[in-house]
Design a protein that fits this description.
233 residues, mainly alpha, two-stranded antiparallel ribbon
Length: 233
């Protein structure tokens, strides 16, 4: 393949970098090199961009893994602290400690009930056809105790396991809001007296939940602020 020199009009090999007669640079070869350099540059940029994306994905995966590990460790510390202090009705408990324990156990109980109703299966069609609520609960309890005793005992055992820690952490959470632990009765007593005065028994649970959502009070008669106790420990 030949090219024509623009200066002396001499034909020569297109692969030469300049005209052999006058020494004029081979512009066509320069253009080809520029195209090749541009293509090479684009390929390098593309490879660099892919490398950056891979590094970013690795960093994101590591950050997610570390965050999951942190959440898991934090959850285990909270559960350990609550169960360790299960018989301690003095002192204070932070809002995060209380609600972490509550949410975790709500999830566990929900899973157990799903397992229970999945094991009941077809029996629930007969149970749900009960004409009254009393008959419904009678059929449900009879089915659980007669046909699904293992799952029922598992649920009852778990509820008994968390009962004392639940009571103690609730009392300490009330202390943390500068309230007496006796306010916990607000979640129980309305079920005995509410029907007689014509209000929903769940009003007491609602009021108690609002109290338990309040932020920590400063140091009070129940102890120092929980964060101060953690720093000193």
């Amino acid at each position: 393949m030949t090219t024509i020199c623009p200066e002396c009009a001499c034909p020569y090999d297109a692969q030469l970098i300049q005209c052999p007669e006058c020494g004029c640079p081979n512009q066509r070869l320069d253009e080809q090199r520029q195209v090749q350099l541009a293509r090479q540059h684009r390929e390098e940029l593309s490879a660099l961009h892919q490398h950056h994306e891979q590094v970013a994905e690795m960093i994101a995966e590591q950050a997610t893994a570390l965050n999951n590990q942190h959440v898991a460790r934090s959850l285990m510390r909270t559960l350990k602290r609550v169960f360790t202090r299960c018989a301690e009705f003095t002192g204070r408990a932070r809002r995060s400690e209380f609600w972490t324990f509550i949410v975790f156990n709500c999830m566990m109980v929900t899973v157990l009930y799903i397992i229970l109703f999945a094991s009941i299966g077809r029996d629930y069609i007969t149970i749900s056809a009960a004409p009254t609520s009393e008959e419904y609960w009678h059929r449900l309890i009879h089915s659980c105790l007669s046909n699904h005793l293992a799952v029922t005992l598992l649920i009852l055992g778990y509820l008994l396991l968390i009962l004392l820690p639940l009571l103690s952490v609730t009392v300490r959470r009330l202390h943390d809001t500068n309230r007496s632990g006796y306010w916990i009765l607000l979640g129980v007593l309305p079920f005995f007296f509410a029907p007689e005065i014509g209000i929903s028994p769940y009003v007491g649970i609602l009021i108690l939940s609002i109290m338990l959502l309040l932020d920590s009070a400063p140091s009070n008669k129940y102890g120092r602020h929980p964060l101060q106790s953690l720093k000193s420990d």
